[in-house]
Amino acid sequence: MSDNKHLIAVTGIIVKEYKYLITKRSPNKRLFPNMWTVPGGNLEVTDYIDEKKDTSQHWYNVLERVLKREIKEEVGLVIKDIKYLTSMTMIAGENPLLIVSLFADHLEGEVILNEESVDYAWVSLEEAKEYDLIEGIYEELEMLDELLKNRRSKEWSNKIKEYHY
Fold this sequence. Notes:
Number of domains: 1
Radius of gyration: 16 Å
CATH class: Alpha Beta
Number of strands: 9
Number of helices: 3
Largest sheet: 7 strands, mixed
């Protein structure tokens, strides 16, 4: 970690009929093998460089574009109505990593996994408790569940490890 640059990734909680899509990571994955998570992946320059700019210098909605690509590649679904949920950072090996957690509605398609995952499930918040989720994923599902029930959204509090308003 010699400089201040971060890798950037997005994850997406896909909502379909009041259930959330979770996937089981391949045993070959370097980070969190065989654990359950939500699909997502890294921002790549190719996600925008060949696209028309929205202003003379800028591309907008790049994270949404990345999430659409990653969801299509990893689970074969088309999504809509992408919205922000939360963000976090971690050190992945030697690299600082910013992860932006988004959520979206299922638009079309049936789940077809690529090589990054070995299983999937559409789960309710209660059912999600039965899976070996990567730390923080259940809390994100809980945040989204609260948000979708039109309650006040909650923020993660690392100090007290519970939610606060």
